[in-house]
Amino acid sequence: MPPDFKKPKRTVDPAALKQALLREQSCVACGYGSQDAHHVLFKGRTAQGDDVSANLVGLCRPCHHKVHQGNPLVLTVVAEYVRASRPDTMEYLDWKLPQGTEEFLGRRYG
């Protein structure tokens, strides 16, 4: 039997996602209604991100897609929002990233 190469199902904390969408009812990038909770520090096999409110920002679906496609304008807006309006996220990133939050935001988000 061949190995199963299906992508593993993600574990997501529904309470954290709901809290993020209640906090940011408008997309932090464009201002339209927030539909998705984006992990600032990605989850995955190599990423360290968690399903906690401090690691989530509300985005509309098109902007969320643009973030994952690497759109520089949307990435920059998200980074500036985190820097200016989310001290909890900055503290979370400082805790998770000993190499430096600003280095990560600059490298990943612009």
Describe this structure in words.
The protein has five helices and two strands. It is mainly alpha-helical and 110 residues long. It has one domain (14-41, 49-108). Strands 1-2 form a two-stranded antiparallel sheet. The longest helix is centred in the C-terminal third of the chain and has 14 residues, at 72-85.
Short description, anyone?
The chain is mainly α and 110 residues long.
State the main characteristics:
about 110 residues, disordered N terminus, single chain, two-stranded antiparallel sheet, 2 strands, mainly alpha
What's the helix and strand layout?
Layout: H1 14-23, E1 36-39, E2 56-59, H2 61-69, H3 72-85, H4 87-96, H5 101-108
Radius of gyration: 14 Å
Number of domains: 1
DSSP helix count? 5
**Largest sheet strand order:** 1-2
